[in-house]
């Protein structure tokens, strides 16, 4: 019988405000060796966000060039900004046998599944719609217009949950982080 193939590329998606960044930050506090791809984005930095750490913050022209040069593994427009995964760094990590985590939107998750079918797709779901609205609003980083736009996108993302291999409900950050580490074969 063939040995089980361990999926080494894990994609974490879920509606804006569900807690993806919080879960990933907790996971990396416990296991700093887990490598998370840093995306490029045309979005402006939020207070405290650092270039090269949270994102590579680029102009529209620079993003166009990344696409034209084939430097993105996937990219998507989300709520008025573009986001993409730099291909080179991800492939290097995979080649060296390290587990790789992408935190990207639904459109990006679909592209990764198409180009790398061996990857595993994990959907982070909110305990309820009301709690999602509370978290997104409570974060206080977006204007009411942007929140409304992100909640529209959230309806589409929640409807696509069945496309994912696994769903984790973000009730407890610690529990979800542990479950994710298990899925990635880190623990
Ligand atoms: P995302 O990265 O998915 O957009 P964030 O990680 O920024 O979401 O989380 C959105 C807000 O929800 C933040 O204020 C965060 O502190 C809060 N949050 C995240 N996970 C939980 C949780 N399990 N319980 C309560 N609040 C949470
Ligand atoms: P935020 O602006 O809140 O940081 O991110 C908005 C959305 O973009 C989130 O769903 C996040 O997962 C997604 N995102 C972040 N980086 C990428 C990326 O490289 N590609 C894609 N497709 N989505 C991304």
TrEMBL record:
It catalyses: GMP + ATP = GDP + ADP. Pfam families: Guanylate_kin. Residues 7-185 form the Guanylate kinase-like domain. It comes from the Bacteria. ATP binds at residues 14-21. Keywords: ATP-binding, Cytoplasm, Kinase, Nucleotide-binding, Transferase. GO terms for molecular function: GMP kinase activity. The keyword Nucleotide-binding applies. SUPFAM superfamilies: P-loop containing nucleoside triphosphate hydrolases. PROSITE patterns: GUANYLATE_KINASE_1, GUANYLATE_KINASE_2. InterPro entries: GK/Ca_channel_bsu, Guanylate_kin-like_dom, Guanylate_kinase, Guanylate_kinase_CS, P-loop_NTPase. It is found in: Cytoplasm. Its EC number is 2.7.4.8. The keyword Kinase applies. Signal peptide: none annotated. CDD domains: GMPK (cd00071). Its main location: cytoplasm. It is an enzyme of class 2 (transferase). Belongs to the guanylate kinase family. Essential for recycling GMP and indirectly, cGMP. This is Guanylate kinase. It comes from Streptomyces tanashiensis. The gene is gmk.
